[in-house]
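C-alpha cells as discussed.
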C-alpha cells in the first residue's frame, strides 16, 4: 500500500504496532520544512519497487496556496542524467554504439578535438569540455534569455576541452546534452520519445522529459531574498543533462531497476558502475565527500548510489541503498541546504 500525502498529512499504511518509521520520517520532513506556509519539499521511500512512505510539506504555488503533496511534480534537474546514461548503455548493449566511439562519429561537421573525446568520457565527466551554461553566459546569454538544445550544442562545439580527455573528472552539463544528441543520431527519434518508449512506458512510470515550465501538477520554483520569495524560472530548454519531470514516489519506483535490471538486464546494471572514475574533492561542497562517477550516478564507498540535482530553485537528492533494495528521493522548490542530509536520514530509518 502506498502512502498518499495531502497537504503534508499521509494516510497511514498497515504497519506493525511497534513500527514508527512513518512517524519518524514525517518528523524529518517537518524539520526540513519548518513552516507549511512557504515553499517546501516532498519525499518518498521505496522498497523493492513499492512506495512505502511519501509526503509533502509546504506550498507548490504561493500565489494560489496550492500545497505540496505526493502528487506534486518537480523538475529532477541533474537526477535526469541517469536516464541519459542508461539510454546510451541500452544502445551499447544492442551494439548500436560503443562507449569507446569518438564523439566525432555522431556529428555532421565535427571539430578536430571531438575525435579524441569518447562517449565514455562524456558519460563519466572526463571529457574536459566546459559547461555550456558558462559558455552561453560568456556570450551574453543569461538564464533569463531563451536558449535551447541547439544553442547549447553550438556553444560547446565552438569551444575546446580544458584538458586532455580521459584524465580528470570535471562535472559538466555539456557532456549529457551531447549524449542526448548521440541517442537521437543513432535512433532517429527525439530523445524524450526514446526515453518514453524504452524506460517510462515499460516500467509504468509517470514521468516525462520536458524542459517546459508549465508541466501539469508541477511546483513552481522560488528564490528567497531577505525572507521574501519570488518565482525563479528560466526559459532555457536543454535536455539530457536535466528536464525529467516527476514525483519523488515515481523516482523511488524507478530505482528498483538498479536491483532488477528489468530494462537493460544484468549487462546494464554492471555497466552503471564499470569504469567509474574518482571525483576526489570536486563534489565536496555538494555534500558528497568521496565516490566514483559511473553512468549518471555516483558510487559511494559503501556501494550505495547517489546523485543530486539543482536547477532554478529545484534541489533534489536521489539515493539507493548498498543492497539496492531501498531508495529515497527528496526534492524541494526553494533552496534547502539540508535536503541531502534529510535523504540520508530517511534512508537510515528504513534500512536499520
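Sequence:
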Amino acid at each position: 500500500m502506498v502512502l498518499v500525502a495531502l497537504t503534508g498529512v499521509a494516510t497511514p499504511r498497515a504497519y506493525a504496532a511497534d513500527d514508527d518509521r512513518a512517524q519518524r520520517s514525517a518528523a524529518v520532513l517537518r524539520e526540513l520544512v519548518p513552516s507549511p506556509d512557504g515553499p517546501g519539499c516532498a519525499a518518498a521511500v521505496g522498497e523493492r519497487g513499492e512506495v512505502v512512505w511519501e509526503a509533502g510539506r509546504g506550498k507548490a504555488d504561493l500565489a494560489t496556496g496550492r500545497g505540496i503533496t505526493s502528487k506534486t511534480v518537480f523538475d529532477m534537474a541533474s537526477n535526469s542524467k541517469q536516464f541519459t546514461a542508461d539510454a546510451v548503455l541500452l544502445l551499447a548493449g544492442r551494439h548500436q554504439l560503443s562507449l569507446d566511439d569518438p564523439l566525432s562519429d555522431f556529428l555532421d561537421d565535427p571539430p578536430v578535438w571531438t575525435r579524441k573525446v569518447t562517449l565514455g568520457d562524456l558519460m563519466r565527466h572526463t571529457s574536459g569540455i566546459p559547461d555550456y551554461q558558462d559558455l552561453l553566459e560568456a556570450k551574453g546569454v543569461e538564464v533569463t534569455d531563451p536558449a535551447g538544445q541547439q544553442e547549447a550544442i553550438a556553444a560547446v562545439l565552438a569551444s575546446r576541452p580544458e584538458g586532455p580527455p580521459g584524465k580528470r573528472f570535471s562535472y559538466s552539463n555539456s557532456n549529457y546534452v551531447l549524449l542526448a544528441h548521440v541517442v537521437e543520431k543513432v535512433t532517429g527519434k527525439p530523445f524524450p520519445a526514446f526515453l518514453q518508449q524504452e524506460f517510462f512506458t515499460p516500467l509504468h512510470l509517470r514521468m516525462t522529459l520536458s524542459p517546459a515550465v508549465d508541466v501539469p501538477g508541477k511546483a513552481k520554483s522560488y528564490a528567497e531574498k531577505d525572507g521574501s520569495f519570488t518565482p525563479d524560472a528560466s526559459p532555457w530548454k536543454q535536455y539530457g543533462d536535466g528536464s525529467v519531470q516527476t514525483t519523488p514516489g515515481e523516482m523511488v519506483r524507478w530505482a528498483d531497476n538498479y536491483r532488477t535490471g528489468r530494462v537493460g538486464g544484468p549487462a546494464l546494471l554492471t555497466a552503471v558502475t564499470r569504469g567509474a572514475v574518482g571525483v576526489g574533492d570536486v563534489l565536496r561542497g555538494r555534500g558528497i565527500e568521496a565516490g566514483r562517477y559511473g553512468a549518471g550516478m555516483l558510487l559511494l564507498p559503501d556501494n550505495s548510489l547517489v546523485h543530486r540535482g539543482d536547477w532554478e530553485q529545484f534541489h533534489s537528492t536521489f539515493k539507493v541503498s548498498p543492497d539496492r533494495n531501498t531508495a529515497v528521493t527528496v526534492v524541494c522548490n526553494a533552496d534547502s541546504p539540508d535536503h541531502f542530509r534529510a535523504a540520508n536520514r530517511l534512508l537510515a530509518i528504513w534500512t536499520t
